Amino acid sequence: MTDKRNAFWALLLVLFAFQSVVFYAQLTTQITPFYPRNHDQLAYLGATYQLVRRAYQEGLWALWSDIHAAGRATAATFTAQGALMALIGGPNRAAVMSLNFVYFLALQAMIFVTVIRKTCRIDLAWLGVGLVITAPSLFNGAGGMLDFRLDFGALCLFGIWTCAVLRTDGWRDAKWSVIAGLCAGLMVSTRFITVTYVISIGSAMLLALIVLSLRTHDFTRCRNLLLSALTFAACVGPFFYWSRDAIYGYYGVGHVLGPEREIRIAEVGIRSLFDHLSFYPVSVVRGHFGVSFLILSAVIVLLALAQPAQRSPKPARSPIFDLAFLALCICGAIAVLTAHGPKSSVVAGIVLIPTVLFVVFVAAAPRRRPLAGLPVAILMVCAIFGFTANANVNQHAMPLEDLRTVNRLNTAAADYIVANKLTRPQIGVDRVVDFLNGGTVWIVMLERDLRAPAVTPVGSLGSIFEISREDALAALAKTDIAFLSDKGGGKEAYPFHRSMGEHWSAMNEYAEKNMQLLTTGKVTGVTFRVYVRPPK
């Protein structure tokens, strides 16, 4: 038995090795040679590189200093985790983004062990891993494994926490209850918004356990759940206290009370109650599951149910708790997201792992003989093929020529800052795009030299909010570098673009008279001009 178990782990390590080749091949060909997509990724990469520089100067203490610093609105430990990867692998984007891959490996190992422990079936453990790697969600352009922001780590940690709760045996095991609390603490410290999932799911479980305990007069399970909750609270409580003002400003004002809420709702096309209620279920099925995942799920369940019954002298333990908990994770997360006004299809991937485990536990529910090695091998080959195909999906929406133009424009701006020794460079834009802005120029500079000065936006030139003609011209007068584009265009949902359409002539007239044209380039059919302040 030990030899067989070692063989299974050896095969899993072979799978991990293959995945690492695929991951780093795509990372070095599609990601690191070009600008980091998405504004969120720009912000987290910039903050991580800054922290790496501090760690070189101050030592590892800088990581702890960053973790407990006030003002974190979305996460406490994410940049420190990325910085740690850079300290191990070097201050480059490939090392930083390896954090996602480490979480992915840990997730697969946790699923593999959990399914074996809970079902005593190695075939379903392999197929659980196979289901995970089939999902296109892993390589989505936004929130996937090749995107350095909070979403992918949260997806993996939510899955790891789900496995840890399953290992508690319905909260009967105190040790695993504490481990589940620690997993939840790491997840929430990596992404604050996940606290809403933990609290809603945990509260529902506690109520159910209280009802059951009143009937049986045994409160062991309630005590273990509360022990897990106390462990979790001890882990994340300080972070929320230190960042309370920033969290309120970002979520309370930005997502609930402020004007950004309506802008974000309009951006994704929510116009009716049906749109509101169906947004996340549709996003999950289309953007995170995909056809291959759904077909493989159905095949696994049907093959498992088609196997002959297995006789055992041991009575089968009811899977009701496990299935109910997994269903609660799926429905609870969707309900929390739906209740939130602004919508983003990226965050819907959080339900991927509970869904995988639900399929596996449904297949394991009736006592059937394990699947033979050949069907499992065939399904795993299909899963690996799906993983490779998803990994090779183009991560950029624009053609290679445009990507090279983006590199040239950002590099030109970075070279200007270095040549003129600007210590506080300021950049303004007339169009909100993720490929030309202060963040993209700053990343170019940081990936050359971690001592590069921060590049900041000027006023509201580049926000999503409306700006007056006077404010736009006043901001432009303060810029060191301005990215100006053709008239019109941009996301109509952004009031900034509507106002820029009115101020375009005045902005370009000012730039022609008072600034120098550094270079131009056409990206996605739009001509962008890079203007700079004349040297003094």
Radius of gyration in whole Å, from Cα? 25 Å
Class inferred from helices and paired strands = mainly alpha
Inertia-based shape? elongated
Strand order of the largest sheet: 2-1-3-5-4
Please explain how this structure is put together.
This protein has helices at residues 2-31, 39-58, 61-67, 78-89, 93-119, 122-134, 150-167, 174-190, 195-216, 220-242, 244-257, 260-267, 273-306, 320-339, 352-364, 373-391, 400-419, 438-446, 469-478, 495-514, and strands at 426-429, 456-457, 481-485, 516-523, 526-532. It is mainly alpha-helical. It folds into two domains: 30-308 and 336-391, no CATH class; 400-532, no CATH class. Strands 2-1-3-5-4 form a five-stranded mixed β-sheet, with helices on both faces. Helix 18 (438-446) links the parallel strand 1 (426-429) and strand 2 (456-457). It is elongated. The relative contact order is 0.11.
Structure described in brief:
With 536 residues, this protein is mainly alpha-helical. The chain has helices at 2-31, 39-58, 61-67, 78-89, 93-119, 122-134, 150-167, 174-190, 195-216, 220-242, 244-257, 260-267, 273-306, 320-339, 352-364, 373-391, 400-419, 438-446, 469-478, 495-514; strands spanning 426-429, 456-457, 481-485, 516-523, 526-532. It has a five-stranded mixed β-sheet, with helices on both faces.
List keywords for this structure.
mainly alpha; 536 residues; five-stranded mixed sheet; 5 strands; 2 domains; elongated; 20 helices
